[in-house]
Write a structure and sequence with these properties.
Blueprint: H1 2-6, H2 8-36, E1 39-40, E2 48-49, H3 53-60, H4 63-93, H5 101-113, H6 116-126, H7 133-140, H8 157-182, H9 186-194, H10 199-210, H11 212-227, H12 231-236, H13 248-258, H14 262-294
Antiparallel strand pairs: 1-2
Helix pairs in contact: 4-8, 4-11, 4-13, 5-8, 8-11, 9-10, 11-14, 13-14
Length: 295
């Protein structure tokens, strides 16, 4: 085995298929996307080099893109402040063995297994102005004045999109935190309890700092996933009403695959990549202090 591990040709032979797969599926499309973002790349016409023309157009002439960036950031913040606290809370509640624990873990995780399009259709029915359960409950309670077209109102549409995303994915993040908490030594918790720490202090001073590295990874997953959200929004609102739920991914889709402006759409994809990288850097920087305190 040691001889095999020292054989560079054998190692290369095993690594090569995965490397080729990565280059074809990830590296080359990424490079090509960045490349054509500098061109007026359409269908049936000449590909004209524009340098930074597409990027200049994005920030100076495309009001819908600016609205999409704003909505994307609001949606990302909304998903982070809803999913992370819910996931930590329920993960903490389910960390100990009790009767029915398996049922609750399964029930919370099942929405993550549902197709985003199916989840979007379900929420569209729930929020339907005529036969949706939300408006019907309000009518039953005598609060007819509060009923509205939830997904047709620019003031509430994005909020409900955030709620739908949080409902679908918080169970996934809950499992991550639950696993992290169950790996904390019970001796540490018991020692803190003997020293007089109540459950809240145990959570705040012991559990939370110890799962900080996992929180950092999970925050990156939530933020980058929210920045790239497309299918649920497309099926639920198609970016409406009046671009109130338009995000960078949906605007990119409409310009690229309906408007056939592939160069312009690729420039949006590059901006989206930059947003994901910037968010990851911010989260890593913010968690450095917490990780250094644990060490």
């Amino acid at each position: 085995m040691e001889k095999l591990l020292r054989d560079k040709k054998t190692i290369l032979l095993f690594v090569l298929p995965g490397l080729l797969f990565f280059v074809l599926i990830v590296a080359f499309p990424l490079f090509f996307t960045v490349l054509i973002s500098f061109f007026n790349w359409g269908v049936g016409g000449p590909q004209k080099f524009l340098a930074f023309g597409n990027y200049t157009r994005l920030f100076t002439m495309d009001d819908t893109f600016l609205q999409a960036v704003k909505n994307t950031l609001l949606l990302t913040i909304g998903c982070l402040v809803t999913q992370a606290p819910l996931a930590v809370f329920f993960g903490y509640m389910l960390r100990k063995q009790f009767r029915g624990q398996g049922f609750f873990k399964t029930a919370f995780f099942i929405p993550n297994m549902i197709s985003s399009v199916a989840a979007a259709l379900m929420w569209s029915f729930i929020l339907h102005p005529q036969f949706g359960i939300i408006n019907n409950l309000l009518r039953f309670a005598g609060l007819d004045s509060l009923t509205r077209t939830w997904l047709g109102d620019p003031q509430t549409a994005l909020m409900w999109v955030v709620m739908a995303i949080a409902w679908q994915f918080f169970g996934y993040h809950m499992i991550i935190y639950l696993t992290a908490m169950q790996n904390i030594s019970t001796e540490i918790i018991e020692a803190a309890s003997i020293d007089g720490a109540n459950p809240f202090l145990n959570f705040w001073k012991i559990t939370l700092p110890l799962i900080a590295p996992i929180m950092k990874v999970d925050f990156v997953l939530i933020v980058t996933g929210s920045l790239r959200t497309f299918d649920l929004i497309y099926a639920m609102t198609s970016g409406g009403p009046n671009h109130a739920t338009e995000v960078v991914a949906t605007h990119l889709y409409f310009r690229s695959f309906q408007g056939m402006q592939f160069g312009y759409g690729s420039s949006m994809a590059v901006i989206l990549i930059i947003l994901c990288l910037a968010a990851t850097w911010i989260i890593n920087t913010a968690f450095k202090k917490a990780e250094s305190n644990i060490v």
